[in-house]
Amino acid sequence: MIKSSIQKVSIVVPSYNEEISLKVLLDELDYFLQNLEYKYEIIFVDDGSIDNSYNVLKDAALKNPNIKVIRLRRNYGQSAALLAGIDSSSGDVIVPLDADLQNDPNDIPKLLHLIEEGYDLVSGWRKNRQDRAIDRKIPSMLANKLISWVSGIRLHDYGCSLKAYRKEALQGTRLYGELHRFLPILASWNGAKVSEIEVNHKPRVFGKSKYGLNRTYKVLLDLIVLKFLTNYSTKPIYFFGGFSFVCFLLSFILTGWSVYLKLFKNIDLDGTPLLIFSAVFIIVSVQFLLMGILADLLMRTYFESQDKKTYQVKESVNLERNQRLINQLL
């Protein structure tokens, strides 16, 4: 019999004002986990709920030692709640699960099976999503296409909370804003092997969704930040320098065009905005260049002051032994 590569599973459930749903979810998880072949823990993160959610979870934890509960001081958002659960987990595989009953716990073994096959991250795809089309499905579809295009990681459903991560694939990852949906990108850019599988999606029965159309612009802004941090966090001068070069080039073209009009067409430039635009672009070009230099200095200070590395080691062979020999020679 082949030994499983998964020793323990940590199911992380962020929740906010889901008192009624949590009671049903606890029953669903209790029934599902009876046949789970792995050791497990369930980490509920109460994200500052103002209903009776915490007491429901506390009572459940007192009855089952495998249930852990974290209560945040206020509502920090799903990314912060998920990170709190990840930081407190002891499993080698982490499975986030929504508390609103729309995710099906019975899909978890499918995700774990792909983890067993060698994937570091398996993302759920709500192919038959049970949400309204206008304010949920259509914006989500457009956002998924945009994210896939920008990141180069082709997934159908970045917004599905039901995923499975090897914990090592999340090492060094910090979540801010709404970056939890971009975890497959962050993990993939760090060398993780990513897959996707269809999962069940159930209609919402209790309460109402915490998300709407106002989330769309937040996704776009987070995507810009993610792209910058991933591609330019150690070399911001390249980012700002690129804009500086474009502005300088536009200023050069406008200046040359102005000179051509004056010398060869005998056109009075006082009535045109060419020289003004040329001056504006050269000023903006210098500003972008200076911003790039300052950002580069700040980033170097950040890495060096905290002794952070600009790389991550996946594994090594004989590294400690070699280091001891070097120390002996010294």
Can you characterise this structure?
It is a single chain. With 330 residues, the chain is α/β, with parallel strands linked by helices. The chain has two domains: 224 residues, Alpha-Beta Complex (Spore Coat Polysaccharide Biosynthesis Protein SpsA, Chain A); 70 residues. It is built from ten helices and seven strands. The longest helix has 32 residues. The protein is elongated, with a radius of gyration of 26 Å. The two termini are 48 Å apart. The model has no long low-confidence stretch (mean pLDDT 81).
Distance between the first and last residues' Cα = 48 Å
What is the CATH T-level topology of the largest domain? Answer: Spore Coat Polysaccharide Biosynthesis Protein SpsA, Chain A
The best one-word shape is elongated
The number of helical segments is 10
Percent in helix: 40-55%
Structural Rg:
26 Å
Could you name the CATH class of the largest domain?
A: Alpha Beta
Strand content: 5-15%
How many extended strands? 7
CATH architecture of the largest domain: Alpha-Beta Complex
Would you tell me the structural class of the helices and strands? Answer: alpha/beta
